[in-house]
Amino acid sequence: MSSKNFYLSSKHSDDAIELPVLNSTIGHNVIDIAKIPQTGCFTLDLGFGATAACESKITFIDGNKGVLLHRGYPIEELAEKSDFLETCFLLINGELPTSSEKENFLRSIQKHRNIDGSTEQLLKGFPRGSHPMAMLCTVVAAMSATYNSNTDITSAEDRMLTIYRLVAKMPILAAMCHRHFIGQPFVATDDRLDYAENFLNMMFGTAGKESTVSPVLAKAMDLIFLLHADHEQNASTSTVRLSGSTGANPYACIASGIAALWGPAHGGANQAVLEMLEEIGDEKHIESFILRAKDKEDSFRLMGFGHRVYKNFDPRARVMKVSCDEVLAELGLENDPLLKIAKRLEQIALDDPYFVEKQLYPNVDFYSGIIMKAIGISPEMFTVIFATGRTIGWIAHWNEMLSSPYRIGRPRQHYTGYGKRSYPA
Ligand code: ACO
Question: Which atom of ligand 1 is nearest to the CA of 293?
């Protein structure tokens, strides 16, 4: 605890109340405001721009400097030297695995790479063309019925089993949602393929045939999962923590995270990027869309630009941009009309004073949307893929919360409705 505490005066007494300042290892320290109600007031922080909701050791972001660390490791280094599953181990356990720990972890994930018949039936019950996020949210919530053993949230062992199940099954469920969405039969998981390769084979392969997934595309997919793995207390992670704080079933908690992620201001932005590019349709229309984005009277925003936390370049976007160029070259798509619009838009926005002054840089969703479109993934699947990568972050935060004392999350409000009144006679 810092010696430089805060003092606030109370309307109920002449004495000031002392609010402890808690030191963070890096970044902003926090004022512990638990005693604030003694002043006769609550605090109000719309959008939680200034409020820490928990203590965490998992991820650190410095939005002004464009820094993202997982357990202390910069995202750029993890993207270059690690892979998605190793990063999952790191997020959960706090340290990188030794080679035998990594082997065991991969084996545990492998063991759970299967889906039971009832989940398959549930998916088949959806009308063809149902939005894959609607299907994913439902099938993950339904896992609470299917995998109803070993879900004692007070047991570290049961929590670990839940983590293995979720990390292993999410890409399988995601691919099955896609196959049902496009009206194609499911492709079985292939134990010889690694995590991302198996996902792409289940998405685009043919049942009973060998995988033809290109290593460049599998690497790009693994990177997309890795770059989305965690982002501290964002809207969906906070939703999972809040649901988890009630003691709810873990699969239901993850389903609540998926629901929160769906919105276009959060995970749905990558789908919105592609829809926007299609709406622009031609490079000659870009200027008018830029004008609309700058017009205060127009609610239109340039999708894939800006971020609540990053007021400098999003470090994930830098890495994704490099991968984007590799994928486009691999697929010979440098001249794809939609992708040309994207590149031109990026350049204009990076040079335009409105975007520069407001620090609205292309975010991770801008480039991930372009990569996934190039791979041939339908825009409706983009947020599902984000959810697949982010599941490890959600469950790591849930696990962290349950591993130490916690209270049910219960915000206060600034009430501005009627005072007490009588029911009309
Ligand atoms: N296009 C045009 N103007 C924008 C944009 C944009 N994409 N984003 C912000 N602005 C402007 C706002 O109009 C506002 O202008 P003003 O100060 O003149 O009123 C200013 O920039 C600040 O905007 P806020 O809404 O206050 O920023 P906030 O931090 O609340 O929102 C958000 C961040 C939601 C990401 C926003 O930038 C946005 O809507 N971007 C487009 C959607 C998107 O790409 N979302 C993905 C986020 S990343 C993720 O979830 C992985």
Answer: 2
